[in-house]
Amino acid sequence: MTARDVRDILGARVLAGEDHLEKEVTSACGADMMSDVLAFSKDHSVLLTGLCNPQVIRTAEMLDIVCLVFVRGKRPDEAMLSMAEERGLIVLATGHRMFSACGMLFAAGLHGGAV
Amino acid sequence: MSESDVITLTYAISPDDFTRAGEASSDVKGKLKQMGVCPEAVRKVAIAMYEGEINMVIHARGGEITVNITPKQIEMILADAGPGIPDVELAMKAGFSTAPDEIRSLGFGAGMGLPNMQKYSDEMKIDTVIGKGTTIFMKVNILPAS
Predict the structure, then answer these.
(1) At A59, which CATH number?
(2) In contact, B96 and B111? CB cutoff 8 Å
(3) Does the beta carbon of B82 lie under 8 angstroms from any beta carbon of chain A?
(4) Domain boundaries in chain B?
(5) pLDDT, mean over chain B
(6) Which residue of A60, B63, B107, B131 has the fewest C-beta atoms within 10 A of its own C-beta?
(7) B47 and A38: CB-CB below 8 Å?
């Protein structure tokens, strides 16, 4: 699926990377601890998180994440969004909680990838 | 780039500025990509160095990172004048952390930093002296293009 599909499935708002919504996404992970994301993420293209600070953008950058989804209505500030724009990162925001957001994407065919 | 060429990058890591932690790793990642280094090596360097950089800010009041790039490998030297690591073996255990709750609330301090640095580097060595500081050497090999 594409990042646009992720947006539609979650009814999310696009906060950054509007021009990149056609990018393909192949697997996803969800976590609030960036240490765990760095430890366990393998070629994931979507990261769902409820953590909201600049290190989320940097973690996404280091792992070549395509699309970042803030859950539980978390809103990144302007500084974070401009960091994301500079890096061509798509940033979405949804009011859904982590479990529900992950479940909706999983049910639509986006899985966790290799362990 | 010939076999003997070395490109050296150095970065001062500012203490207690968690917002800026990762800027050096981001810069190195960009430069390696520009140089056409294989994506797998770029990813390994980016993750290993980023974890190290975060550690330097959390535990050691910053420090200095030197990156030496040759056609065959990327060497990272992370030097700080922090408190040192009392028990390296324990610090290397996945899940062991001395980071305060404040750092955990920022998404780090899960005790995965050092294990991750080892996982993503091809060679790693830790020199640490209590009260003087810690220097971590990491090496990532660049695989020849197939």
Answers:
(1) 3.40.1390.20
(2) yes
(3) no
(4) 7-141
(5) 93
(6) B131
(7) yes
Contacts of B110 in chain A (CB under 8 A): 33, 35-36, 39
pLDDT at A115 (0 to 100) = 61
pLDDT interval class at B3 (50, 70, 90): low
Contacts of A64 in chain B (CB under 8 A): 43
Question: Rounded to two decimals, what is the model's pTM?
Answer: 0.92
B43 backbone φψ class: left, alpha, beta (φ>0; ψ -120 to 50):
alpha
Q: What's the pLDDT score for residue B1?
A: 62
Nearest CA in chain B to A43: B43
Interface size between A and B, measured as CB pairs under 8 A: 67
Convert the pLDDT of each residue in B107-140 to its tens digit: 998 898 999 999 999 999 999 999 999 999 999 9
- pLDDT of B146 > 60? The answer is no
Q: Which domain holds residue A48?
A: 3-107
Could you say which of B43, B54, B119 has the minimum Cβ distance to residue A64?
B43
The residue whose two tokens read 């009392």 is B86
Whether A87 maps to a domain, the answer reads: yes
